[in-house]
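Example: Carboxypeptidase regulatory-like domain-containing protein.
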Amino acid sequence: MSRSRNTAALGIAATALAALGVMAPASAHGRELWGDVTVLPGREGIVEIAGYEGDALGAGSRLTLTAPEGAEVTETPLRAQDYRGRVDADGDSASYTWSGSAGARPWQGRSFPFVLAVPADAVPGTRLAGCAVRLTDARGTRKDRGTCAVTVGLPEPTLTRPASGVALAARPVTGGTAYPGAQITVRYEDTKDAGVTGQGPEPGTEVCTATAGRDGSWACVPATALPAGPGRLQATATFNGVAAVSEQIYVAVGGAGRHGGRQGLA
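Written out as structure tokens, the predicted fold is:
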């Protein structure tokens, strides 16, 4: 089956793709410590904390992250000289402690990763409350604080019908699976249209919509006939303000079809 995963394809906005379960880069949020990440239910993601612009802090200074409600910190993956990571036994918090020279500036100009695990029953689109960070000196005096935004992402839908690479009728049944209750939009685009890369003038044409059932299955039939010849189909799922896209499939309406392995887009 010939498929292509191209998150920019069919004109889908990048902001709608933050729900694919991939870590969103942290950035300074004003002068406070800050980080953000989107994590799929039952998965882990890395939140990067950054943004300290204060005075130099010596040995024994510590950056601590408190996990949001329902989530756990599972790892402090930074492996750098003079930084010592530690995760509390219950996973409620984790920290990095600086053990280097007193005159160093260990917290400026870099980010600090924490691995967060989100429960399997977390609802996509939910922002988990209670994620907080603080920076203290060797005496435990707070020098800075901030927050981290942890959003539950939407699992990627699947597009399993129609079959890829075989000749199709003009209005083929499309279907697959998605998060229960998600709204599904199927889009089509001619393979000759440069818009399929997300850089052309036109997005993919909406051909049909559906809602995923309790078991996650969905199906719909194009309201109008698809153009004859080769093209590509892709499904977008939206739920509670977050979105995810399926892999693309190559289709051929009334033609010989297209065969081959997994394809990338130019």
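Residues 22 and 185 are 22 Å apart (CA to CA).
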